[in-house]
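Sequence only, no structure available. Ideas?
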Amino acid sequence: MRNKYAVIFTTLNALFCLRVLGQALVAFLDVPFLPPMKAWMSGLMPYPILLPCQLLIIMLLTKVCFDCLRGRGFALQAKPGLAKFMHVFGLIYISATILRFLIFGLSIPVAFHLVLAAFVLTYAHFQKRLCCERC
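Reply:
I predicted one. Tokens follow.
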């Protein structure tokens, strides 16, 4: 079970890393083959604040990936309360992202909020499975 989740977590994390890298390439190197900076931004948070937040998210997702790949660590400890919270949070997050998609259409930020919401919901499911195994 753990290996299946490790693949899913690592794939979603890699996708998010590519998004952050792409945006950084445009912001700092003005790479012409990628969409302009305006396409990467939702306008809610200035890039100097957004980038450190994205890097923090990557660190957290990477910790989950490594714990899952190693078979031990904080992310693999069964926590029923965390499973419940992540499930509710994930449902609210994906619902808000889908609503944003319906109102504003598909954009780079919307697509990658879907990726992050998928990670949250997958981790919630993983936690539920861990809790069931330990019962």
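The mean pLDDT is 95.
Hope that gets you unstuck.
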